[in-house]
Design brief:
It contains 31 helices and 10 strands. By secondary structure, the chain is an alpha+beta fold. The strands form 3 sheets. Strands 6-5-4-3-7 form a 5-stranded antiparallel beta sheet. A 3-stranded antiparallel beta sheet has the order 8-10-9, with helices on one face.
């Protein structure tokens, strides 16, 4: 049997199967339509169905009414509590009892997710009730239509209560349908009111959460004699053997119930601890010094980062496992739940400190991979390891007594004292490690004495030391909760910055390795060419990495910075309601009359901060956008360097203008506020600044029309050179003596400009030659053309030519016309043509030199 016959048989089988499937689908659809019940209930069965629907609708309506009443009651209770809190805050808000009440109210607030789920449930119920009401209304309309048809002359008379199929619908069933429709309409209205009440309660709950957090953070609980009296019971609660035995028992019970993940975490942590020596040797083996720079790849650095994390994670993993086991304790076990929260906080702190210690270890990334000073980092690492254990222990006591499940008396006594010691230890450690004469700063001075890090050392040193010092002051002044809250988030932010610094180092290492590999490949290719071997163009390394290395690093660093900003936002987003109290503080108030009404303008700390943030981000974007344009324009879209430069300039101006407009809008500066300044500038431009503006506008025209580009060879007046930079006011031209000539941009618009390379690099050389009278002109002309045509850098199209141009007193004047493909070759080719002409003249016996 041939393949074509088999194929026809298969197609026939498939066609028959499709016909059978289509027939079955048609029968199924027809049966479905035939079995659909009529929308209008009729008969005794229809009456029973309507009665059941009425009963169900009544029950659902009662439930919705009860839910609506509960929502109104919750809203009334919340309003009453917030009025009481505001009244207490205005009269006498100090004291531990008030803080405990605020904490209780804050914990009792329902989360916003519950209201969103309730509103989604209301939407589903409203859709179902609306569909049911529509079916009942349609049944009633059909009944009414049949009654109208029976009363119309010329139409067959039909009982007004007759249903399709001969079934009759008595007036009682019709009344039941109308009652059902009324119940469904009332339920829909109740659901809409409940949905609105849920939305309003959600908004009030969010506002109450912000207000309670603000009261809790910014209303001080001043220390008193009671604070010191409560130290004894707080210490007893913290170190009670009964509490610790209870926590251990609950952890053991939870481990017996769910052993898989805790046992897996314990085994993993134990394996990492046992393999610590091997991991450390692996960290050394992956370093460039051992692998060799010629064989080092970026995956070696990424593997080293993973090994560093594996070295740092065992202890925090054990702490997190204990926290997870204790988190399932009953709500009445305050110590166990407090211990669970404290272990989570200690685990995060230990992970950051341990990772930092391994990063600056003598075998770590900072020294062996990033090339930092071994002496200074080794000393800093030893100091950090001595500092870690007592610091973490004191922090554990502070965390155990400051978490939400700890007693209020513990927060105000032992928790405040331990938190103050944590702040004090941070101040001492940072002050000693980062002082000007310390090993870290001295190594920075030795490696980059003129860097911004060295220049701004007093600024960032003062900020880092002042931050925990301010926390110590706030804790002592009664703001212990706020101090602990912000200190925790500052530490998390510093650890995020540490992670970003590691990524910055990896990116810099990648660029360095790529440049090294490119240089080695280029040297190898050049050696092959010098040795006479041919180099396959397909195997030559592309120069993109070397040419765009700085741009690639800048772009990657920008992406890392954006990721860092997102991470910081995630850390600080729950602090926004608290910071709003500070951000709403008015720095300036002013009024103006608009349309006969006074309008109040307020400048708050938040507005000023946002304006400064917009300015900083705009500055960063203006600086970094050039790298993005270089990468995308030159590498991906294939733009020329001059086009990319024009795009960068226009993009920078646009970003700067947008940043100024946004910052001005945040500060409340509108057109009406600056129009007088614009008018004054207009007068100034008409007199003293017109040349500056003319040059600026001319620069924009040059960038847009591109009569000159970066790299073009131009002649302006008596200056000839290559365009190096096009700035806002002037253009820099480097002449052939390597002098930089600054030419105002207005010159390129108003004065004649010769662009030697605008459309082509080809240019013509014209050289004059004097031939003695009586020489063989035809032979000399032919020989010069031949010799010039043999020069490798003289173009054959257009071909060189020699013309007899004039008679002189003692000789005949000729001109040699030759074309070269590059301006860089003009002087050399001119020299070669002169040599060729002199050689031809000597050959022909005409010894007159070229004129």
């Amino acid at each position: 049997m041939s393949p074509s016959h088999v194929l026809r048989r298969l197609l026939g089988i498939v066609r028959a199967a499709l016909w059978v499937f289509s027939g079955c689908a048609l029968l199924y659809v027809s049966a479905g339509f035939a079995q659909q019940p009529d929308a209008t209930p009729g008969g005794a069965a229809g009456g029973d169905a309507v009665a059941r629907q009425i009963e169900a609708a009544s029950i659902a309506l009662d439930q919705q009414r009860a839910e609506l009443a509960a929502l109104h009651q919750a809203k009334s209770t919340l309003d009453e509590r917030m009025r009481w809190v505001e009244r207490r805050a205005r009269v006498n808000a100090l004291g531990g009892e008030f803080s405990q009440t605020l904490l209780d109210y804050l914990h009792q607030l329902p989360p916003a997710q519950r209201f969103r789920a309730l509103r989604a449930q209301h939407a589903e119920q409203m859709a179902a009730a609306s569909d049911q009401e529509l079916r009942v209304e349609r049944a009633l309309h059909e009944i009414k239509a049949r009654r109208v048809a029976g009363a119309t002359p010329g139409l067959p008379l039909q009982s007004p209560a007759a249903a399709p199929g001969g079934e009759s619908l008595d007036p009682g069933q019709r009344d039941a349908l109308e009652r059902l429709a009324g119940l469904l309409r009332e339920r829909l209205e109740t659901l809409e009111r409940a949905n609105s009440a849920a939305h309003e309660l959600e908004q009030k709950s969010i506002a109450a959460q912000k207000a309670l957090a603000g009261y809790l953070f910014w209303i001080p609980a001043l220390p008193s004699a009671k604070t010191f009296i409560e130290l004894t019971p707080s210490l007893a609660w913290t170190f009670s053997p009964v509490n610790w035995r209870l926590a251990g028992g609950l952890a053991a019970d939870e481990l017996a119930r769910w052993p898989f993940w805790p046992v897996l975490a314990l085994l993993t942590a134990g394996a990492l601890l046992a393999a610590r020596g091997r991991l450390r040797r692996r960290l050394v083996a992956l370093s460039p010094e051992v692998v060799g720079w010629d064989r080092f790849r970026i995956w070696h650095a990424l593997a080293a980062v993973a090994v560093t994390f594996a070295l740092a994670v065992p202890g925090p993993m054990l702490l997190l496992t204990g926290a997870a086991l204790l988190a399932a304790a009953p709500s009445d076990q305050g110590f166990v739940l407090s211990l669970s929260g404290a272990l989570r906080m200690v685990a995060a702190l230990s992970l950051g400190l341990s990772a930092l210690a391994w990063l600056i270890d003598p075998d770590g990334l900072a020294i062996r991979y990033f090339g930092r000073s071994a002496i200074s980092l080794d000393a800093a690492g030893r100091t950090l390891r001595r500092f870690m254990l007592p610091f973490v222990l004191v922090f554990s006591v502070a965390a155990l007594n400051m978490v939400e499940h700890a007693p209020q008396a513990n927060r105000e006594s032992l928790g405040r004292l331990a938190l103050g010691l944590v702040m004090l230890g941070s101040v001492v450690y940072l002050a000693r490690q980062l002082r000007r004469r310390g090993p870290l700063v001295q190594s920075l001075v030795a490696s980059a004495p003129h860097s911004w890090g060295v220049r701004l050392h007093p600024v960032w040193y003062g900020l880092l030391v002042a931050t925990p010092l301010a926390g110590l002051y706030f804790a002592a002044a009664g703001y212990a909760i706020a101090a602990g809250f912000f200190w925790t988030r500052i530490v998390e932010s510093l650890f995020l910055a540490l992670g970003a610094a590691v990524l910055y180092g990896v990116v810099g290492l990648w660029v360095k390795v790529q440049r090294l590999h490119f240089a080695q490949a280029s040297d190898a290719a050049q050696a092959m060419v010098v040795g006479g071997a041919t180099v396959d163009d397909r195997r030559r390394p592309a120069p993109d990495v070397a040419a765009l290395g700085d741009q690639a690093r800048s772009l990657l660093q920008l992406l890392i910075t954006l990721a860092l900003v997102i991470g910081l936002w995630a850390v600080w987003q729950d602090a926004m309601p608290v910071l709003q109290w500070v951000g709403d503080y008015a720095l300036w108030r002013g009024t103006e009359t608009v349309g006969g009404k006074e309008v109040l303008h307020v400048l708050t700390i938040g507005d000023l901060f946002m304006a400064i943030l917009v300015g900083v981000l705009t500055g960063v974007a203006v600086r970094k956008v050039g790298s993005l344009v270089d990468i995308v324009g030159m590498s991906q879209l294939g733009f020329q360097a001059d086009a990319t430069y024009a795009i960068k300039a226009v993009t920078r101006y646009s970003l700067a203008a947008a940043g100024v407009l946004v910052a001005s809008s945040i500060l409340g500066i509108g057109w009406g506020d600056v129009q007088w300044l614009v008018a004054a500038l207009g007068v100034g431009l008409g007199f003293g600044l017109q040349e500056i503006v003319a040059n600026f506008v001319s620069g924009l025209i040059v960038l847009a029309e591109r009569p000159i580009r970066i790299g073009d060879v131009i002649t302006v007046d008596k200056t000839t050179g290559k365009v190096a930079r096009i700035r806002a006011r002037a253009t820099v031209v480097v002449d052939f003596d390597n002098k930089e000539v600054i030419i105002p941009n207005k010159t390129f618009i108003t004065a004649p400009v010769v662009n030697w390379t605008l459309s082509s690099q080809v240019s013509r050389l014209v050289l004059k030659v004097g031939v003695p009278l009586g020489s063989n002109i035809a032979a000399i002309q032919q020989r010069i053309v031949e010799e010039v045509g043999l020069l490798p850098d003289v173009l054959s199209n257009p071909p060189p030519a020699v013309f007899f141009t004039a008679f002189a007193d003692k000789n005949l004047e000729f001109e040699i016309h030759a074309y070269v493909g590059s301006l860089n070759d003009r002087f050399r080719v001119q020299h070669e043509i002169n040599l060729a002409a002199e050689r031809v003249l000597r050959e022909q016996g005409a010894d007159a030199p070229p004129s």
